[in-house]
Amino acid sequence: MLKYIIKRILISVLILFGVSVILYSLVRMMPNDYIDNKFSSQLQQGFITQDDVDKYKELYGLSGGIFEGYCSWVGNLFTKGLGNSFLYEDPVVDVIGKNMWISFAIAVIATILQFLIAIPLGISSATHQYTARDYAVTIFTMMGLSLPTYFFAAIVIKILSVDLDLFPIGGLIDPSASYPETFWGGLTQFFDIVHHLVLPIFVSVILSLGGLMRYTRTNTLEVLNADYIRTARAKGLSEKTVIYKHAFRNTLIPLATLLAGILPSLFGGMMITEQVFAIDGIGRLAYNALRQGDVPFVMGYNLFLAILTIIGTLFSDIMYSIVDPRVKLGK
After folding, report:
1. Checking CA distances to 304, which of 93, 180, 183, 253 falls within 20 to 30 Å?
2. What does the alpha-carbon distance between residue 115 and residue 129 come to, in Å, rounded to a whole number?
3. Range of lowest pLDDT (169-183, 218-232, 292-306)
4. Which pLDDT tens digit goes with each residue over 121-165?
5. pTM to 2 decimals?
6. DSSP assignment, residue 175?
7. What is the DSSP string of 118-157?
8. Which residues contact 32 (CB under 8 A, 6 or more apart)?
9. Comparing 37 with 321, which gets the higher pLDDT?
10. Cβ pair 83, 91 in contact under 8 A
């Protein structure tokens, strides 16, 4: 196991290198860079000249070509870390570390709820194939797969926030509230934050349920048609024992591979969700940085997602070996 993990980490370094090359090339090929966005109005009004803009680009490392800029970025990576964000004017590591936790909390809670809801629904749909329950789950699945995040979030806000006034429209805390620096004040603030996060988590969970439910249903149907399931039924075992003791574990084997991409995909989806709900998490900051052409922050954020994907893939492989003892990770 240890040898396998070390080997995967070494391979991951090469993968990160390739990912960084592609990411940097894509960011630099954007129509406008940070300097163009920042000084476009001043340039049009004649307050500065094109020579001034070119000097700023040279200062920010945006004057050369993509290859030259990438080599400069890699050199800074080993000497200065991920560098300073153009837009937020702080080290990229500090900006990510300071703002990632709210996004991480939403992503982790949404992932846990997604598995707790989708797997039972998928199994129930498979064991009641072609019934009203199966059709209801299928319709719910298609809705989750089809609705865009911003559209569904707008509907949720309209119904639960505007019409019923059950939850805040956005933000993390009530701007009109004041919390004393006491235990009860901190506890009140905590519950206020939880109250604000209900809708973002709800939207993230509902929109991510569809794929996992459909995947669980398909795998369960395949397992229920296996020979050993027919043998278990022929021995007189109850249907509940057949499903939850014999079929359930083998249903989980393919689902273990999904762990690799769920957390990074939720972080990536936070861009839209946090923008709609005005939450200053890492997703919203990355969205604004991408619009402004903030190369250091965009590179740091996407490398963060790439590292999460690699960690998720490794964790998925380990979970696969736990769920299915026949799988060995020694090679």
Report:
1. 253
2. 21
3. 169-183
4. 888 888 888 899 888 888 888 887 888 888 999 999 999 999 998
5. 0.79
6. T
7. HHHHHHHHHHTTTSHHHHHHHHHHHHHHHS-HHHHHHHHI
8. 40, 293
9. 37
10. yes
CB distance 262 to 312 below 8 Å = yes
Q: What are 165-184's pLDDT values in tens digits?
A: 899 888 888 877 777 778 77
- For the record, the structure tokens of 267 come out as 């972080």
- CA dihedral angle for residue 190, residue 191, residue 193, residue 194, rounded to 10 degrees: 120
Domains and CATH numbers, the chain: 17-80 (no CATH), 94-289 (1.10.3720.10)
**φ and ψ at residue 91, rounded to 5 degrees:** -55, 140
Print burial letters for 175-200: b (CB count within 10 Å at least 16), e (below 16).
Answer: eeeeeeeeeeeeebbeebeeebbebb
Mean per-residue pLDDT for 214-234? 85
pLDDT over 80 (residue 31): no
Rounded distance, CA 6 to CA 74, Å?
24
- Which position has the token pair 């026949």? 326
Contact 28, 69 (CB under 8 A): yes
